[in-house]
Structure formats: structure tokens, C-alpha cells
Design brief:
The complex is a heterodimer of chains A (287) and B (234). Helices cover 77% and strands 3% of the residues of chain A. Chain A is mainly α. A two-stranded antiparallel sheet of chain A has the order 1-2. By secondary structure, chain B is an alpha/beta fold. In chain B, 39% of the residues lie in helices and 27% in strands. In chain B, strand 1 and strand 2 form a beta hairpin. The chains are: A mainly alpha (287), B alpha/beta (234).
């Protein structure tokens, strides 16, 4: 009984950590850069596939390959925003949120098809650090414990970055009042590109963690995009601690549902999503 | 120091400034007076680069600045304190001040600037860890001005610092602005409270319906019959 409980709890925390990570990235893109990034999940997929590719082709440790994958994806994100989204911002003015959503929707097809061309349509997977670990009578693969620890550390690290660093403060200021942030001397174009890049960076790290534990496909992204959206709405737009907590809440809910009714978790997520929008649209931790 | 030459600005089909020219000499306080919607804030936005003029030029310290981006203009030494303060509500007072010195050259000297600003506004030091949204109206305006000083500007542009404040607080603010001039700062002051502002400005411009209709030294300003009747009521 205890082992089952620990199992469900741990599964929930694990999923929660990954949900939190992807939702923080998603929230950064929407809250600051004003892009409702439908292609967020595609970058999770990219992160996962790049990790898999490095591992199967070059026997590169997934954690080591992060040192290549994460900066590459960050740079892609930074320049995607700096080129495409910045010029869209100029031409679309007040309609930017709608047009940027459409643009990111277009990116979904481009990235997905690129992945299919590069890696094919097959379901992929690999085994890495899967040796069993016993915690309170329940047995887990070591990579899951690692993923949980890493996602919590990353979340905390990112929070500290926002709270303490000069750039982190500029990001928060830009989220609250972009034109006044400019009056303080903040180069908004760079800060927005940075936020978009960082958001995608979080996605790619989550993708790396996912690939260690689950099978991956080129079309896995959309589900994660939807989950990020649900977590962000649950936590309250623009609140990083809110994202973090609600990521874990959703993860736990998912694992409990999965234990009793496998396969129903996504349906329960949608239900929660609609319920939150109806009852408390500002989110659990929103202002 | 600052020169605006024949600037035209429009919001869509509405012209917000018609051929506006002003000059702000170094070391002076220059007032821009006028009613709501006359174009005062638009003029400041053009100078700080938040808006682009359709035509005309803005020169600062011998450089054309109307084609530069806002963050570049800040680094040249212009600090624009927007109307209503526009604080970063979810940040502490100290963080608001730190944002004021975001530009690299100011960032290196932020500890020094903090000390100076806390000397002018000791109340802010007492509350440095509180969120900006917890401050009262007068304190908010204090923080807005202090944040504007953190970039160590040469030219300070204040947009209605007296708006919504009690008369005694207004007197205090104008005394502080005057003392900033004595420290060598040049000030461009946008105001509706003309009577009070005339006590500290060296020269003033009057904007009506997007045009400069009158300008003179502050002593001559009071002599003008139209100004007295329309704005001072006597």
C-alpha cells in the first residue's frame, strides 16, 4: 500500500517537474514577449530528438549533450524572435498577439516536418541510467529521480535569475510596463528575444529529460503545448512560482488519474482547464 | 542643450503636434504648460524616442536624436519621468531604483547614486524592501523622481509631477526640483499647475491644440494678458 502511494506520488512529482519546466518557458514567452507559442511543444520534441540522436549516433551522455542542445536551441529561439517576430511586431501593431499566434502555428508545421525528414516518423527511444532505485519500498528507474531533481533545480535557478540578476530584473520590468522599461534604458528588442529564447531553452531541456524516460515521436509536441497552456492558466498568467506549483499540482492529478483510470489524464486536464477558466479565470495563484 | 525644431506628430489622422519648436538651455528649468490633451506628453515622448515625429528634428548636446531608439537616448543622458510615475508595482522600491540605473555606465555607479537619492528622499530608504504598490501618492511620485535620477541624467524631463498631490507636498516637490537645478541638472517640466511652476522655471512655453502659442521668460509669462486670463484667472 505504501509502495503504491509512493509510486503514484513520485510519478506525479516527476511529471509535475517537467510540466513546471515547460510551463515556465511558455509563460515567459507569453507574459513578456507576448507570443502565445503554439510551437512550444515542437521545441520539446526537438530537444528530445537531438538528445536521442546524439546518444544513439555518438553515444553522447544525454546530460552532456544538453551542453550542445540547449545553447543551440536558445540561439535559434533568440534569432527567430529577433527576425520574424520583431518585424511582425512592427507591421501588426496592436494585432501582434493574434498574428504571433498564427506565426507560431506555422512554425509547428515547419519544425515537425523538418524532424520527420531528418529522423523519420518512427517512435524512438533509448535506455539510459535505468538502473532501479528503491525509495520507501517503491522501485524507480534512476533516470526518473534524476529528472525530478534536475527540473526542480532548474526551476529554482531560473527563479533566482529573475529575482536577483540585472537582466532578470529587466525581464520583470518589461513584463510589467514595456515602455517604461525602455525609458530606463532597456533594449526591449533584445530582452524580448532573450525571453523567447529562454522559453524555448526550457522546452528543450524538458525534452531532453522526457527522452530519457519515454518514447518520442516527431508529433509529440502538441500534447505538451496544451499542457503548458493548462498549467499557465492554472497558475495564473505571468506568475513563475504559480507556474511551478501548478505544474506539480497537475502532475499529481495526472498520476492519480493514471493510477485509477489509465489514459484518462488528458481528459481530466481539459476538465480542470475549463473549470479554472469558469470559476477562477485569474488562476490559483494569480493576482 | 536640447533643441526641438519644427516637429510634427500624428496619431493616425489626429495631429498631436504642429510645427513645435522649443529650446532648453543647459542649467535651466524650462516649463511646458497647457491643458489636458494639448500635446505636452506627446512632446516628451518624441524627445525620449517613444514616438517618432513625421517631420522635424530633435537635437541633444550637438547630436540628432530623433532617429535613435529610446534606450540609446537614455544613455546619452536624458531621463524621462512619465506621467503618473508608472512605477514597477510588483517590484520593491530598491528594485525600482536599480532599474533606473539599468544603462551600463549608470549601473556601475548605482551604489553611489542610491546613496545620493536616499539623501534627497530619506523616506524611500526606510521602505526600500516594500513593493512599490504599497506606497502613498506622494511617496510614489518621490520614487518616480528618484528612479529618474538613478540614470545620472544631464536632462530630467518631468511629466506633471504635481498631479494629484496635496498643496504642501507640491511645494516640497518644486523645492526639490529647484535644488536639482542647483546641482547642475537641466530640467524640462511639464505642468498644469502654472502658478506654482512659474515660481521655479526660468522660461516657459504654452501649448494649445498641438501648437506652441506663446513662450517667454517666466517673469514675462505673468505679464501676458491672455495667459493671465485663460490660465491664471485674473
Amino acid at each position: 500500500m505504501l509502495a503504491t502511494f509512493v509510486n503514484v506520488l513520485f510519478d506525479g512529482l516527476l511529471m509535475g517537474g517537467i510540466y513546471a519546466l515547460i510551463a515556465i518557458g511558455f509563460s515567459l514567452q507569453y507574459g513578456v514577449a507576448r507570443v502565445l507559442n503554439i510551437s512550444h511543444g515542437e521545441f520539446i520534441m526537438l530537444g528530445a530528438f537531438m538528445t536521442w540522436w546524439f546518444f544513439t549516433r555518438f553515444f553522447l551522455n544525454p546530460l552532456a549533450s544538453l551542453l550542445i542542445t540547449a545553447p543551440t536551441i536558445f540561439i535559434i529561439g533568440f534569432f527567430l524572435y529577433k527576425t520574424l517576430f520583431t518585424s511582425l511586431r512592427k507591421t501588426s501593431g496592436a494585432g501582434f498577439e493574434a498574428s504571433s499566434l498564427l506565426l507560431s502555428f506555422g512554425l509547428v508545421f515547419i519544425i515537425q516536418n523538418l524532424a520527420i525528414i531528418l529522423w523519420g516518423r518512427d517512435i524512438r527511444g533509448y535506455t539510459f541510467m535505468a538502473s532501479p532505485v528503491r525509495i520507501l519500498g517503491a522501485i524507480f528507474a534512476f533516470n526518473r529521480v534524476l529528472a525530478l531533481v534536475l527540473s526542480v533545480c532548474l526551476g529554482i535557478l531560473f527563479y533566482m535569475f529573475l529575482a536577483r540578476s540585472r537582466t532578470g530584473k529587466a525581464i520583470r520590468a518589461a513584463a510589467q510596463d514595456p515602455s517604461v522599461a525602455e525609458l530606463m534604458g532597456v533594449n526591449m528588442r533584445n530582452v524580448l528575444s532573450l525571453c523567447f529564447g529562454l522559453g524555448i531553452l526550457m522546452a528543450s531541456i524538458a525534452g531532453c529529460l522526457v527522452s530519457m524516460m519515454y518514447e518520442i515521436t516527431p508529433v509529440m509536441g502538441l500534447e505538451y503545448t496544451i499542457i503548458s497552456m493548462i498549467v499557465v492558466v492554472l497558475g495564473g498568467l505571468g506568475s513563475i512560482p504559480g507556474c511551478f506549483l501548478s505544474g506539480f499540482i497537475l502532475g499529481l492529478v495526472g498520476s492519480i488519474v493514471n493510477y485509477t483510470q489509465p489514459g484518462l489524464s488528458l481528459a481530466v486536464y481539459y476538465f480542470l482547464f475549463v473549470a479554472i477558466l469558469l470559476i477562477r479565470p485569474s488562476g490559483l495563484f494569480g493576482r | 542643450m536640447l533643441e526641438v525644431r519644427g516637429v510634427n506628430v500624428s496619431y493616425g489622422k489626429i495631429q498631436a503636434l504642429w510645427d513645435v519648436s522649443i529650446e532648453v538651455p543647459e542649467g535651466q528649468i524650462v516649463g511646458i504648460f497647457g491643458a489636458n490633451g494639448a500635446g505636452k506628453t506627446t512632446l516628451l515622448n518624441v524627445i525620449s524616442g517613444l514616438m517618432r515625429p513625421l517631420s522635424g528634428e530633435v537635437w541633444f548636446m550637438g547630436r540628432k536624436i530623433h532617429t535613435l531608439e529610446t534606450h540609446r537616448i537614455v544613455r546619452l543622458g536624458i531621463s524621462h519621468i512619465p506621467e503618473g510615475g508608472r512605477l514597477f508595482e510588483e517590484m520593491t522600491i530598491r528594485e525600482n531604483l536599480e532599474m533606473g540605473s539599468y544603462a551600463p555606465s549608470a549601473w556601475r555607479r548605482r551604489q553611489e547614486s542610491l546613496r545620493e537619492v536616499y539623501q534627497i528622499f530619506p523616506k524611500l530608504k526606510e521602505r526600500e524592501d516594500q513593493l512599490a504598490k504599497t506606497l502613498s501618492g506622494g511617496e510614489r511620485q518621490m520614487l518616480a523622481i528618484a528612479r529618474g535620477l538613478m540614470s545620472r541624467p544631464r536632462l530630467l524631463m518631468c511629466d506633471e509631477p504635481s498631479f494629484g498631490l496635496a498643496p504642501l507636498v507640491i511645494i516640497e516637490f518644486f523645492r526639490i526640483i529647484k535644488s536639482l537645478k542647483e546641482r547642475g541638472l537641466t530640467v524640462l517640466l511639464v505642468e498644469q499647475n502654472i502658478a506654482r511652476a512659474l515660481e521655479i522655471v526660468d522660461r516657459a512655453y504654452l501649448i494649445e491644440n498641438a501648437r506652441i502659442v506663446f513662450h517667454s521668460s517666466s517673469s514675462d509669462f505673468l505679464q501676458n494678458e491672455y495667459v493671465r486670463k485663460a490660465y491664471l484667472g485674473y
